């Protein structure tokens, strides 16, 4: 069932007929995101270019109780931007202006459709640094990063998106426009409302401007690759590095399956005669960089590293980081369906979790590639399967059930950076417990009483 004609006419009036898609063939690209085995057709797709349009659309949707799903580049991995039946998909990729770079206050104001790499590059032009770097940073948008509270390779040392958001312009579900936060380093006046919207996955409001914090660019960095004949040894090296009070910029992990896929895909000279690989990077003052690099190499060798290789220059370091970012794409070439998750545990439990993932893959007779941000305990077990094989998909779901339960048992979480969306909706109450679940539902009801924003995502308000 399509949207009523009177609603479509109003939407065309607000954004222009040319910015409203209604034909099935035009809607198909917006019927899925980066999440495997999920698809749902929307009622229409809108392209917005300014805050006032977003406000008018939400006023109309709230009045008619029509669902609205906000979408950026659609790179999400939890079904967060998957349309609900006959909803309005509001695409913000054309709100893509960098509005201000303020070197005096180390801030940047951008619209939600600006890509992460554009923010990084614009900061670099004036000698500044924007650290968050999700694997999809070349195409993911800042609006999506904020909505999902995205992480990335540099999260261990520099934190995640939340740590770099100083303010947000938000359009509330009834169309009212609100600015929360500012350029002040210290501001404790009232509740920190911006933090409620960061990571809310488009369920509480629509982000139309983001005020980002920038920092000085590190003076030096050193990148190393350590190889191991067992995953346990790599995981123990990570735990030992953190226990030694070393906080690298990057501490990434790839297992044998992922290494071979990445090298075949990116051809950067990764060693193939190992079971696990650590990509380690330290940055900061040159003296501190050299000292930390030496200590990390020592700990890697103590845990039986087969080889520790230092990138000879920035170009090689960039190639190695780019290769790690390609892990998901590389694994996706091996099977029709690639299901990537992000169970996260305290770093002291890494060895247990790595072993558990391997055992579960064997138990359910599944092929798995595991990689991730091991320095912050964030693992990405990736099952290579075929969604057309119903019996195998049942085994995949059973495997993930056990992985998430084990992560919770070890004091971890069901998602470190991908969000809940639809993919992990069933697991959220178990992780949150009764009190947190109730507060989540009540907050959502207060801000969006008609339930128009991203309906059905994260949790059911009425259950």
Outline the fold blueprint:
Layout: H1 5-15, E1 20-21, H2 24-27, E2 44-47, H3 51-64, E3 68-71, E4 88-91, E5 98-102, E6 107-110, H4 116-125, E7 128-129, H5 142-148, H6 155-158, E8 165-171, E9 177-181, H7 193-197, E10 206-213, E11 215-216, E12 220-228, H8 231-243, E13 250-255, H9 256-266, E14 276-284, H10 286-302, E15 307-310, H11 314-325, H12 327-331, E16 337-340, H13 350-363, E17 367-373, E18 378-385, H14 390-409, H15 428-447
Parallel strand pairs: 2-4, 3-4
Antiparallel strand pairs: 1-2, 5-6, 6-10, 7-11, 8-9, 8-10, 12-14, 12-15, 13-14, 13-17, 16-18, 17-18
Helix pairs in contact: 1-3, 8-10, 8-13, 13-14
Quick description:
The chain has helices at residues 5-15, 24-27, 51-64, 116-125, 142-148, 155-158, 193-197, 231-243, 256-266, 286-302, 314-325, 327-331, 350-363, 390-409, 428-447; strands at residues 20-21, 44-47, 68-71, 88-91, 98-102, 107-110, 128-129, 165-171, 177-181, 206-213, 215-216, 220-228, 250-255, 276-284, 307-310, 337-340, 367-373, 378-385. It contains 15 helices and 18 strands.
């Amino acid at each position: 069932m399509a949207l009523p004609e009177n609603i479509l006419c109003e939407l065309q009036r607000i954004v222009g007929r040319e910015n409203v898609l209604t034909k099935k063939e035009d809607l198909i690209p917006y019927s899925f995101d980066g999440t495997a085995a999920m698809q749902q057709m929307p009622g229409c797709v809108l392209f917005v270019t300014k805050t006032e349009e977003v406000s008018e659309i939400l006023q109309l949707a709230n009045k008619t109780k029509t669902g609205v799903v906000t979408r950026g580049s659609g790179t999400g991995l939890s079904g967060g931007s998957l349309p609900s039946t006959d909803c309005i998909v509001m695409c913000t990729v054309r709100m893509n202006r960098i509005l201000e770079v303020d070197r005096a206050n180390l801030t940047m104001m951008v619209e939600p459709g600006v890509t992460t790499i554009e923010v990084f590059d614009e900061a670099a032009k004036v000698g500044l640094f924007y650290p968050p770097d999700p694997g999809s940073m070349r195409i993911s948008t800042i609006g999506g990063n904020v909505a999902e509270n995205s992480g990335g390779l540099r999260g261990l040392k520099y934190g995640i998106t939340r740590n770099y958001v100083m303010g947000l312009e938000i359009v509330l579900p009834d169309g009212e426009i609100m600015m929360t936060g500012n350029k002040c380093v210290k501001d404790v006046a009232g509740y920190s409302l911006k933090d409620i919207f960061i990571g809310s996955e488009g369920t509480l409001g629509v982000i139309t401007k983001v005020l980002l914090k920038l920092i000085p660019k590190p003076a030096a960095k050193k990148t190393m690759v350590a190889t191991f004949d067992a995953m346990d040894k790599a995981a123990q090296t990570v735990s030992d590095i953190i226990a030694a009070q070393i906080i690298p910029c990057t501490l990434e992990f790839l297992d044998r399956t992922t290494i071979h896929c990445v090298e075949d895909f990116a051809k950067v000279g990764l060693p193939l005669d190992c079971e696990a690989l650590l990509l380690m990077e330290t940055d900061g003052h040159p003296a501190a960089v050299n000292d930390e690099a030496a200590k990390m190499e020592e700990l890697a060798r103590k845990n039986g590293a087969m080889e520790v290789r230092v990138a000879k220059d920035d170009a090689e370091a960039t190639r190695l980081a780019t290769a790690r970012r390609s892990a998901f794409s590389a694994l996706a070439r091996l099977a029709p369906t690639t299901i990537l998750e992000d169970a996260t545990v305290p770093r002291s439990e890494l060895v247990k979790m790595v072993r558990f993932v391997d055992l579960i893959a064997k138990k359910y007779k599944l092929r798995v590639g595991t990689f991730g941000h091991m320095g912050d305990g964030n693992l990405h077990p990736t099952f290579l399967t075929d969604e057309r094989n119903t019996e195998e998909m049942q085994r995949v779901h059973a495997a993930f059930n056990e992985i998430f339960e084990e992560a919770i048992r070890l004091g971890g979480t069901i998602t470190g950076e991908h969000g809940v969306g639809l993919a992990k909706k069933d697991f959220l109450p178990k992780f949150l417990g009764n009190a947190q679940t109730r507060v989540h539902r009540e907050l959502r009801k207060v801000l969006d009483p008609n339930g128009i924003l991203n309906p059905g995502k994260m949790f059911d308000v009425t259950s």
